[in-house]
Amino acid sequence: MKHRNLWVACGVGFVLLVIYLSVTPHPVDVPSWHGLKLGHVAAYGWLMLWFTEIFPRAGARIAIAAALLALGIGLEYVQDMVGRDFAYSDMRDDGIGIAFGWILALTPLGRILGRIDA
User: What global pTM score does this model have?
Assistant: First the structure.
């Protein structure tokens, strides 16, 4: 990738946005579907898809998934400290999003940045 640093900077921006949305005292109302918070699934799915496009190797994907899961778990504990709701189900939803992003990365969607950057 010719613009890898740009794509990484955008990814860091997305991570910072997730952190902000997780700790802001005025949280966004996240829609649910059968107890699944779609905002969590979408956010972590997007992060997983984004970073696996930049770092496509299998070992990197495992590290990215682990880092994102650690981020989601850590943010739940931070939310508890700042007076927001702590929920194990949010951790589950983050994990579902990570798995969804990993699967999407195996499809043609997982090569969009490469096509743009070519």
Answer: 0.92
